[in-house]
Design a protein that fits this description.
The complex is a heterodimer of chains A (302) and B (283). Chain A is built from eleven helices and 14 strands. Chain A has helices at residues 3-6, 57-64, 82-87, 108-114, 128-140, 156-170, 186-201, 216-219, 236-239, 242-249, 260-263, and strands spanning 18-26, 32-41, 45-50, 72-77, 80-81, 91-94, 174-178, 205-209, 222-226, 230-235, 254-258, 272-276, 282-285, 294-295. A six-stranded mixed sheet of chain A has the order 6-7-8-3-9-10, sandwiched between helices. In chain A, strands 2-1-4-5 form a four-stranded antiparallel sheet. The mean pLDDT of chain B is 86. Classes of the chains: A alpha/beta (302), B mainly alpha (283). The structure holds adenosine-5'-triphosphate and magnesium ion (MG).
Chain lengths: 302, 283
């Protein structure tokens, strides 16, 4: 069943890409979660997927994983249909914490090894290459010392890193991360972001849903803003603007505007806008969007 | 000493011992999966859902196992379908489907009173099992065991994380159907040994016991299967002396092991947990 996946040699890895065009996704209960959405992403990209709760982020992930079939439109990954891309092990998925059964009797090692199944034979017996890949992946996320732990016996941030290691071990060229920063401290977040930057440098494509608006300009070069459809998509500088966010979030954001006198007592009439959906506030200096927004830090560093 | 070896002098006892062991082993294998998904009652439901199939099989004079298997499979698929199409909880779905099947079965039996010995279905009759039935049970058990040994990791992945199963190119739907086919087949086999009422124990207790003893799925299976084989063989053996129901004895032995694990398991048992807490507190 996995012959194709096993036969991918390093030289033949297809260039990662995601193309979604005119996609409408409906659930069995008739709810149209995503309507006529389109965006395209290429290799060497970290793309943020942002939107309010229920705007269809997880739905888009499920569609990319072949779990939901679009009622209309086309989805292609690395130039292939979703099924073909999955068969070749091109897509790795880091699940939201709630989706995992933490009481399941598997060790960290076992979970990471699950990423290698596509590379193994019919009976999934790990070979040397698989053990090495798993070990390297654990090393990269700094979790090697926990490899013999049952997965439920880890902290939230450690759990995230295990699943990230699984995606690494799989060698997926397209990596989907559903809210990887929820419940993760700043140190771990920086670690994950650092790792994602490395993966981008290797040419991989990552799609990340997050409510941490503040850190997006830090590490994402592309942004897709959704609310039942794609409101805006493109490079961070031109897409991640106050206007677009206002459209997407409306009243859902906490919005502080510090103007004139309350900011400083001189004649500078520029103002500071702080937008926060979750933890790291997004700060705009002035009202011109093309000025590079500076990201606020939870730990108080500028 | 001679007394202890006495059962081995009777062919029917030898047969009962190895058939029980075989069935106990496969059911224990399946129990590892069922228990983790909260589907434990599925085994019970299937065992009862099989009754109409058996009744019809007698009526139409086709092999009894075939009828049982198809009605079990039908019930499993019906449960899966109702589960997917509605938001009903597992227990409600299982309850509705299995009582419906059982009722239909009783209806058929009551219309054709002589056709089936319901008691042998409900209580099992391993000591009086016919050679034909032995062959049927043995084939079912061997085929299931082979498939499980080849695919246990894929099934584990599907049960643990369907998305990842898909991401490595597996088809969760196909593997789940495979699992339910195996479960239906093995339930039919288990009916013969312990009867419909006690099948549930065979497909729950070994997995639940092993879960208390290990954190690795491979070992979980090994422990559960070892336990299933041993308790079933010993149960069948002991029924010679106690002159009691084989099914009852097998389940009593399994429960005894579960209690031991519950009390003394190093990590998850009651005493073990207390000791660990003390050691942890002292360190
Ligand atoms: N299984 C389901 N059946 C029916 N409707 C669903 C289902 N899952 C989600 N929906 C609906 O689809 C819409 C999009 O949900 P989705 O889970 O994609 O949101 P999200 O953007 O991931 O939200 P969050 O930020 O809360 O994770 C919501 O309106 C939700 O109610
Ligand atoms: Mg979501």
């Amino acid at each position: 069943m996995n012959r194709e996946a096993a036969e991918i040699r390093p030289g033949q890895v297809p260039t990662p890409s995601i193309v979604i065009s005119g996609v409408t996704v409906r659930y069995a209960n008739g709810v149209t979660a995503v309507n006529d959405a389109s965006f395209a992403l290429g290799p060497g990209t970290i793309c943020a997927l942002v939107g309010v709760n229920g705007s269809g982020k997880s739905t888009i992930f499920k569609t990319l994983m072949g779990f939901l079939k679009p009622a209309q439109g086309l989805v292609s990954i690395a130039g292939m249909e979703v099924r073909a891309a999955l068969k070749r092990g091109l897509v790795a998925y880091v699940p939201q914490a709630e989706e995992v059964d933490w009481t399941f009797p598997v060790l960290v090692d076992d979970v990471v090894m699950m990423g290698r199944y596509g590379h193994m034979g019919f009976m999934r017996l790990p070979r040397k290459a698989d053990r090495e890949a798993a070990e390297q992946a654990l090393e990269r996320v700094n979790m090697l010392e926990f490899r013999r732990r049952q997965i439920g016996e880890l902290s939230g941030g450690q759990r995230k890193r295990v699943f990230l290691a699984r995606a690494l071990a799989q060698g997926g060229q397209v990596i989907l991360l559903d809210e990887p920063f929820t419940g993760v401290d700043v140190k771990t977040e920086d670690q994950i972001v650092g790792l994602m930057r490395e993966l981008r440098a290797e040419g991989r494509l990552m799609l990340v849903s997050t409510h941490n608006l503040g850190s997006i300009p830090d590490f994402c070069d592309q942004v897709v803003i959704v609310n039942k459809t794609v409101l805006a998509a493109g490079p961070t500088e031109s897409t991640f603007t106050q206007d677009n966010l206002q459209k997407a979030f409306g009243g859902a954001l906490r919005h502080f505007r510090l103007e004139g006198a309350s900011l400083h007592a001189d004649a500078d009439e520029r103002r500071v806008t702080v937008i926060t959906d979750d933890e790291r506030p997004l700060v705009f200096y002035g009202d011109r969007d093309h000025e590079k927004p500076a990201a606020g830090r939870k730990d108080g560093q500028p | 000493m001679e007394l202890l070896l006495e059962p081995f002098g009777y062919q029917y006892m030898v047969k009962a011992i190895w058939v029980s062991a075989l069935v106990g082993g496969v059911c224990a294998f399946l129990s590892c999966y069922l228990m983790l998904k909260g589907w434990s009652l599925m085994g019970d439901a299937l065992a009862h859902a099989i009754v109409p199939g058996v009744a019809l099989a007698y009526l139409l004079k086709v092999p009894y196992a075939a009828g049982a298997f198809f009605s079990g499979l039908l019930a499993a698929l019906a449960m899966a379908l109702v589960r997917v199409r509605t938001q009903l909880r597992e227990d409600a779905v299982i309850g509705i489907v299995f009582t419906t099947f059982f009722a239909v079965g009783l209806l058929i039996v009551s219309i054709n009173p002589t056709s089936v010995n319901v008691q042998s279905i409900v209580l099992g009759n391993i000591l009086g099992i016919s050679d034909e039935d032995v062959i049927q049970v043995a084939i079912i058990a061997f085929v299931s065991l082979t498939i499980l040994l080849l695919r246990w990791k894929d099934l584990m992945l599907v049960f643990f994380d369907e998305n990842q199963a898909r991401a490595v190119g597996l088809s969760p739907t196909r593997l789940k159907i495979l699992f339910f086919v195996l479960l239906s087949a093995c339930t039919v086999a288990a009916l013969q040994t312990v009867g419909a009422c006690l099948v549930i124990a065979m497909v729950v207790t070994p997995g639940a016991t092993a879960y208390l003893l290990t954190d690795r799925f491979g070992r979980l299976i090994a422990i559960a299967v070892a336990m299933g084989v041993t308790t079933s063989a010993v149960g069948a053996y002991a029924s010679y002396f106690l002159d009691g129901s084989t099914g009852g004895l097998i389940v009593v032995f399994q429960t005894a092991l579960f209690l031991l694990a519950f009390l003394f398991a190093p990590k998850h048992g009651r005493l073990g947990a207390r000791r660990a807490a003390r050691v942890g507190g002292a360190a």
